[in-house]
């Protein structure tokens, strides 16, 4: 396997040293350069042509968001992984960076200067390796949301969306186009750490006609509501007196992640199988592979994002391999696929 060449961008020399030390400890990764701000980052990308860039958010001269936008204009841009503070501002900037073309992100545990990032070393290394195989060019194409469908007869189906690397902008596009009149009950399981899922839910709520919020244990899932699984918790569904109730737990990670979409899909199949539509989006790994089989066996439907539109064709690929996928769709066609399978 070829060595993954990385450029580290951070205005703190201390942080650049920590990040470089972590990455250089893996024999498959080599830090080939460092930059202290966005301006220098763009120059180094042009000069060194790295495979992956780790990008800080707040920097002098040019911030990380602006740098991401400029780097995405280059021919064959590198994959960018954002490193941001676990703050409201850091989360908002991260989601904007993902929309502009960054493929993944990782929070700094204790703020802008975060010496305990070393404790997350293995996670950072995994992020870099995943980013190295991501399809960056997908975000160079501006996908314009289709006009919202004004009215659809209430369908009341249960839609469970699972996503990982590259997922947030896709989930955002789906939720911005999903017609409220269909009264779907929506659960979103995006692989994301604690502290970011609440901001993700608020971002989705701002672009969607649905009421989108981070799930709380005991929530009732009703038509016109979308619940986001909170970071570090699995989300399962229970049925009682005709209501579907959310239960959160801290059971062991599944497929290396928590939340995992597996327990959500399996529980959805049990409580409302024939009315369940599973949507498996871009992401590394195999999360959802088991759950889609439960959904299909219970009489539900399954949609997988197309290889051509995925940043990482991992989760959808594994779902397709089960033989349970009804529709493979590009990003702009996913909402129409949901509506069609729901009987609209």
Automatic annotation (TrEMBL):
Query: Which InterPro entries does the protein's record reference?
Result: CheB-like, CheB_C, CheY-like_superfamily, Sig_transdc_resp-reg_Me-estase, Sig_transdc_resp-reg_receiver
Transport among the record's keywords? no
Fill in the PTM field for this protein. Answer: Phosphorylated by CheA. Phosphorylation of the N-terminal regulatory domain activates the methylesterase activity.
Q: Which cellular component, as a GO term, is one annotated location?
A: cytoplasm
Q: Which GO terms describe its molecular function?
A: phosphorelay response regulator activity; protein-glutamate methylesterase activity; protein-glutamine glutaminase activity
**PTM sites of type 4-aspartylphosphate:** 56
Q: Where in the cell is it found?
A: Cytoplasm
Q: Which residues form the Response regulatory domain?
A: 5-123
Task: Identify the keywords attached in UniProt to this record, alphabetized.
Answer: Chemotaxis, Cytoplasm, Hydrolase, Phosphoprotein
Stored SUPFAM superfamilies: CheY-like, Methylesterase CheB, C-terminal domain
Q: What positions does the domain CheB-type methylesterase occupy?
A: 154-344
**Domain comment as written in the entry:** Contains a C-terminal catalytic domain, and an N-terminal region which modulates catalytic activity.
Q: What function is annotated for this protein?
A: Involved in chemotaxis. Part of a chemotaxis signal transduction system that modulates chemotaxis in response to various stimuli. Catalyzes the demethylation of specific methylglutamate residues introduced into the chemoreceptors (methyl-accepting chemotaxis proteins or MCP) by CheR. Also mediates the irreversible deamidation of specific glutamine residues to glutamic acid.
Which named protein is this? Protein-glutamate methylesterase/protein-glutamine glutaminase
Species for this entry: Archaeoglobus veneficus (strain DSM 11195 / SNP6)
Gene name as annotated: cheB
């Amino acid at each position: 396997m070829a060595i993954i060449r990385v450029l580290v961008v951070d205005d703190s020399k201390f942080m650049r040293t920590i990040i470089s030390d972590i990455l250089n400890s893996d024999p498959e990764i080599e830090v080939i350069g460092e930059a202290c701000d966005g301006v220098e980052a763009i120059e180094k990308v042009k000069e060194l042509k790295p495979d992956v860039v780790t990008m800080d958010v707040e920097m002098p001269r040019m911030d990380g968001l602006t740098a991401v936008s400029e780097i995405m204009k280059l021919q064959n841009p590198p994959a960018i992984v954002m490193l941001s503070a676990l703050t409201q501002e850091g989360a908002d900037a991260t989601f904007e960076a993902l929309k502009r073309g960054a493929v993944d992100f990782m929070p700094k545990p204790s703020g802008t200067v975060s010496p305990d990032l070393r404790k997350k070393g293995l996670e950072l290394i995994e992020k870099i390796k995943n980013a190295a195989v991501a399809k960056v060019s997908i975000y160079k194409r501006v996908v314009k949301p289709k006009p919202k469908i004004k009215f659809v007869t209430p369908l009341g189906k249960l839609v469970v969306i699972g996503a990982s690397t590259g997922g947030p902008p896709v989930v955002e596009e789906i939720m911005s186009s999903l017609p409220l009149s269909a009264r779907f009950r929506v659960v979103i399981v995006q692989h994301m750490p604690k502290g970011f899922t609440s901001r993700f839910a608020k971002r989705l709520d701002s672009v969607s006609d649905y009421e989108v919020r981070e799930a709380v244990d005991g929530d009732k899932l009703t038509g016109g509501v979308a619940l986001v699984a909170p970071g570090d918790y699995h989300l399962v569904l229970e049925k009682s007196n005709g209501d579907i109730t959310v239960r959160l737990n801290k059971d062991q990670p599944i497929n290396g992640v928590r939340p995992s979409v597996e327990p959500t899909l399996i529980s959805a199949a049990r409580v409302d199988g024939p009315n369940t539509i599973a949507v498996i989006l871009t992401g590394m790994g195999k999360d959802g592979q088991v759950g889609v089989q439960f959904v299909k066996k219970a009489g539900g439907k399954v949609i997988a994002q197309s290889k051509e539109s995925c940043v990482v064709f991992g989760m959808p690929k594994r779902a397709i391999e089960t033989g349970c996928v009804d529709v493979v769709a590009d990003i702009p066609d996913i909402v129409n696929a949901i509506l069609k399978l729901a009987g609209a």
